[in-house]
Model the fold of this input.
Amino acid sequence: MAQSDFVRYSGGMTQDQDIPNNVKRAVEKVLRDRLGPAGFSGADIRADRDVDGDPILLVDVNYNFVDRPISSKITFGLPTEVRKALISLGESRFPQIRHHFNEQQKIAS
Done:
């Protein structure tokens, strides 16, 4: 893994907040496979709760600047793909994915 490529994992202090390593690896693989060409530089993954108090996995995806415009279509269906990988591992928390592009990045529609 290059120095600029990273995935940071954090969670709360309670056991229901823990994120198993196989879950972390599964999320990272989907993100890297789908978003690598778009400048994927890593993700912050942490256990959290949604507005209703249900447990979720909050996934903040970070990108490096790339010279060409990035198609917004790369993100379509990503939550579903991550969710399928999680379900196959018995992980029931829903992934909430947020994308953080470089300020200078151009996005093609």
Observations:
- The CA atoms of residues 20 and 91 lie 9 Å apart.
- The chain has two helices and six strands.
- The longest helix spans residues 21-35.
